[in-house]
Each structure stands twice: as C-alpha cells, then as structure tokens.
Design goal:
Length: 157
C-alpha cells in the first residue's frame, strides 16, 4: 500500500515544512508515501466559493484512480483516536488497498462530488486548524498510527 497526502493550496510554509518532511520520512519506513500539493485554480479570486470548490473537485476527481481509497478530511467526519487510526490503516493494508489517499480540501472545504466519492470522511478535531497545520498534524498522526501498529514506543514517549 502507498500512502498519498493531497492538499489544495500553496507549498508547505516554512513553519511546518521541517515537521512535515520529518514525519513523512518516518512514515516511509512503513509505507511508500508521497505529498501532492494541488494548486488553487489561477482565477480563484474571481470565482464564487461554490465555483472554486467545484473546480478543485474536478481536478481531484480527474486525478483519482478507480481503486484509490479516498479519505476526505472534513469537520463533519468521524473522529478517531490514535489507536483507531492505527486500526483503520492496518485494515486498509490488509484489504490490499493499493493507494490510500488522505485529502485536505481547499479554503472552503471539499466539493460535494468529491465527498460522495470519498470512501471515508475523517475529522481530526472539532477545532478548526489552518490548512498548513493540518498537514503537520496529519503526517504526525499517520506516523503515530504506523508506530502503534508496529508496537513501537513513540506513542508513549
């Protein structure tokens, strides 16, 4: 299984870049992993919120493969403990999922068409975080889940 992190927006800001890179490197000890930053459409400032989400959604749906397992990060999604995320990842791996895609939406969230395509909707928290911080939290939590599955000490360090 390969883990993909997709995020709409700009490249990693300096204040999260090192952390994202560090946890991504650690995840690579368990699974191949890749970040894809999906650029905001060029005329984003001229689009309505709905039109922007729709355009972003079209790009995402074009990029997804039929068998990709899509996890949409959404505030209305199900919350998981770290152990629950570990179990979730292990189940996907045991199901021989080829690509596990975690999607961080744009400034206005994820288009409804993409939400319908999502295999799972996950909420990191009821709190709202800046998109850049979500990248760091996501990478750290996936690493933590991998370490839990291997019964390594990181989770309790």
């Amino acid at each position: 299984m390969k883990i993909h992190f997709w995020s709409i927006g700009k490249n990693h800001e300096a204040y999260v870049k090192n952390g994202v890179e560090e946890f991504t490197k650690r995840i690579s000890n368990y699974y191949p992993v890749q970040w894809t930053i999906i650029p905001v459409p060029k005329n984003a400032g001229m689009l309505s919120e709905a039109d922007l989400k729709k355009k972003e959604g079209e790009v995402i749906l074009d990029w997804l493969q039929k068998d990709d397992y899509l996890v949409a990060l959404d505030e209305r999604g199900k919350q998981l403990s770290s152990e629950g995320l570990a179990e979730f990842i292990m189940k996907r791996s045991n199901e021989s999922i080829k690509n596990l895609v975690f999607l961080i939406g744009g400034a206005y969230g994820i288009d409804e068409a993409v939400m319908k395509r999502a295999n799972y909707k996950w909420s990191l928290s009821q709190l709202v975080f800046p998109h850049q911080m979500v990248r760091l939290i996501l990478a750290e939590q996936v690493y933590r889940a991998c370490s839990i599955n291997r019964k390594e000490k990181y989770h309790h360090s």
